[in-house]
Amino acid sequence: MAELVGGFGTSHSLILVMEPEDWSARAEFDRTISHPFRGETLSFAELAERRTDKDYAALAELPARRAHAQRNQTAIDALGDAIRELDPDVLVVIGDDQEEWYSAAMQPAITIYHGDKLLNSAYDPEDHKHKHPSIQMVESKRHTPEDTYYPVAAELATHMAETATANGFEITASRDIPFDRKGKPIGIGHAFTFIYRRVLRDRPIPLVPILVNTFYPPNRPLPSRCFQFGQILGDAIRSWESDRRVAVVGSGGLSHFVIDEEWDRRMLRAMADGNYAPLIEEDDGIFRSGTSEVKNWIIMLGAISRSDFEMELIDYVPCYRSEAGTGTAMGFAVWH
Q1: The CA-based dihedral angle spanning residues 38, 40, 45, 48, taken in that order and rounded to the nearest 10 degrees
Q2: In this structure, are residues 307 and 332 in contact, taking their beta carbons and an 8 Å threshold?
Q3: 3-state class of 327 per DSSP?
Q4: CA–CA separation, 26 vs 237, rounded Å?
Q5: Based on the structure, what is the number of domains in the chain?
Q6: Per-residue pLDDT tens for 19-50?
Q7: CATH number of the domain to which 210 belongs
Q8: Is 237 among the domain residues?
């Protein structure tokens, strides 16, 4: 049977592929929208007025940004090295789809892709011309210069879908890459391309992509349901008739676009202790905006929960970019 050999958690934020001098472009965007924070939705001005516990303006100045950016890149390199040292034959990558493959026309809660290959499409400026300049900047780095196909462990993906169904967990199964309105195949989203372009440094390992709707109502899976699904994935890996070594990656998080260090550290302590109750029982209202991506980690944790792995936190880096405490809290961790 296959062997489940480890787990990984990583943020995949825009600013991980941006220079710290450019983070202010995202701060400009933050000022134009409302933000979920601890069960409320606040304007940027309300958020700035509410958050007086720290000098967030100072934490968002360029020297702090540069120091945080260096820590991020060091952590990503360490994470990539840890994956290479573990040397899995397959990576199961759990990431959220932010209207990249799916839209309001059809928004599955959880999808397992079981085709033979996956596309990272070449960057096309025309596709991003209506997006914020900071998004355009990042997408040019997340996409490959030319269309690139990654190998998929289709046999394991199919086995996962069958195992989930047999255990009363109906998921969406996808075998074909979707096409856009122009008839072009759509590349997989940023939660996956970040792993392959930056963490693995364009040296792909066969993967199973699992796409989770963490962002969009009304069918976001609850934290408890995510953990249950992860346990099914772990069982499927261990029951796969193969001699392959498999690792699981949760891609996304931590708290953003409003950083909540207290919440992040409480969640990370629960992960380190192997006491998943605080994660599973957390009010689903907390999992909004980018913070919802922590559900990808919860699925990963469910998958490895029946193994005696121990967590190694590579780093936790709260990357502020405005006086209201907006930004992204970065987390990078390995389960051996």
Answers
A1: -20
A2: no
A3: strand
A4: 39
A5: 1
A6: 899 888 888 889 999 999 998 999 999 999 99
A7: 3.40.830.10
A8: yes
Q: Which of 23, 24, 25, 16 is nearest to 70 (CA)?
A: 16
CB 169 within 8 A of CB 227: no
Name residue 208's beta-bridge partners. 92
d(CA 312, CA 60): 28
Assess if residue 86 is contained within a domain.
yes
- The residues, ordered by sequence, that sit 6+ positions from 144 with a Cβ below 8 Å of its Cβ are 120, 121, 122, 123, 197, 202
Cis link prior to 254 (omega < 30° from 0)?
A: yes
- In the numeric block, which tokens belong to residue 309? 């792995």
**Cα–Cα distance measured from residue 59 to residue 79, given in angstroms and rounded to the nearest whole number:** 25
Instruction: Please give the full DSSP string across 40-59, using - where no structure is assigned.
Output: EEE-HHHHHHH--SS-HHHH
Digit-coded pLDDT (tens) for 137-146: 777 778 888 8
